Amino acid sequence: MSENIVILMIGVSTLLGALGLIALLWGIKTGQFDDQSKFIDSARFDGEDALRDAVMMEEKKKKRQKKKENEEKAYGPPD
């Protein structure tokens, strides 16, 4: 490949990268990625069973964490 083609490819790829970055920043600035109805819809369509399951899973997680902390506290090197 000639040197001119490599320079042209680097220039074009840099330009396309800059355009992609500008588009991303514009999308973030204008709120294109904000999904305000996501949390409302998830709460609206969740049933009581799903909520009970989530609470039960959270309690199990807390119990495991507490048990792990107690085991770590109970461990001591032999004297």
Report a brief summary of the structure.
The chain is an all-alpha fold. It has helices spanning 3-29, 37-45, 48-74.
Number of extended strands: 0
Strand percent estimate = under 5%
**Mean pLDDT over the residues:** 84
C-alpha geometry: flat
Helix content range: over 70%
Q: How far is it from the N-terminal to the C-terminal residue, by CA?
A: 73 Å
Which residue ranges are poorly predicted, with pLDDT under 50 across at least 5 consecutive positions? none
Specify the structural class. Answer: mainly alpha
How does the major sheet shape up?
Answer: none
Plain-language structure description:
It is a single chain. With 79 residues, the chain is mostly helical. It has helices spanning 3-29, 37-45, 48-74. The mean pLDDT is 84.
Summarize this structure as a short list of keywords or feature phrases.
3 helices, flat, mainly alpha, 79 residues, 0% strand
Task: Please write out the topology.
Elements: H1 3-29, H2 37-45, H3 48-74
